[in-house]
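Action item from last week, closing it out:
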Amino acid sequence: MNTDTQEAAAPQPISVIIVGMGARASIYSMVALTNPELLRVVGVVETNPERRDQARIMFDLPDEHCFNSVDELVALPRFADAVINCTMDRLHVQTSLPLLRHGYDLLLEKPYALSDEEGQPLIECARETGRKVMVCHVLRYTPFYRAMRRVIALGSIGEVINIHMANQVGYLHESVSFVRGKYAREEICGSCMLLTKCSHDLDIMSWLMGENTPATISSVGGVIQFKEEKAPEGAGTHCLNNCPLERDCPFSARRLYIEHPLRWSNNVWHDTNNAPSTDEEKEAILRQPDNPFSRCVYRCNISIVDHQSVLIHFRDGATGTFSMNGGASTPRRIIHVTGTRGEIYGDFEEECFHVRQMDPAAPGGYTERTLDMSDFQQGDAHGGGDRSIVLDFIALLRGERTSPGCPTLEDSITGHRMVFLAEKSRLAGGAVQTF
């Protein structure tokens, strides 16, 4: 055989174990089905037997590689390169520590922890073991934010003075996940609303600002809409059982989850471990008195906020403002960056942003160009970031070149601390927190 012409052997696929086979893990693990030459799922840890069995069938796993707990997994010698950890937020640290100590690299769903104090042992463990940890900040991989970061880095709008961002959480998503669902109360999911829904956004703000880190943070917010006293007069406690106003309510469980099944209803059936095939079956499930997804949204006793605003003062004097508004008519992520020589403004859902630059000779005193990302994002909710972050994780483990925005654990600390301190400020009545 002529070794001069012999092609190098193709690298073996990265082998992973899924810990927490929920919605996010299902999305990340799709790469193993579409590109088995890159990724192979070789085990699963899942407390729910139905989901564990689904993973066993989907990835053709042997019974001995299907576990009920992380303790069961680490009792065996390491048999994979890495773990994709998509457990509930409050379990991230306690499940990740034994995995790192057992020699597994980690792709960890955000947030990496619920607080600075809880996150410190994870950071120290990753440093001590030398394991690779990436946090799933998928928005860094979207063409929209990547192109925006390049425009800023090129100096096209001068020095950044202010970044304003807003996350308009649509009422469909708000009602199913954050009012009726498992993210409504911190004692269930472990996270405040800002951490659960908006750690992506504040990570993006931190990423766009680069080395310019925050100096102080303050925040205010609360519940203004989804509370008992805002229920319409005569409203019942349960949409399908005792509410005479159900047909006129935008949050009607029948209208949202039966008549319009594409409006987040999959979350309902997933989180209640049901797979109804007919409208009659769906209605029977929603009529169950203990079904959380047909409760009146005004009587769910949520402990998270439904609106919050954050003010960040950066070390060079620039400012950042962020607003989360739950129950908006349309879901939107809006951004406006003001610089000393121009500005950028855009809407993530519209898949484009506009760059205005000062130009005294131009009509109106400025020039404007639009960067259209629609050909790249194609309407994807995360702009293709879910798949891209898995591919970057594979490259990281192979020692190949990774994305400039690769969100390692160390690199994601600033964005997380912004959230931690914002919530600390909110609970203290808006008191300024030093970063």
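Closing note: Residues 139-226+302-381+408-434 form a domain with the Dihydrodipicolinate Reductase; domain 2 fold (CATH 3.30.360.10).
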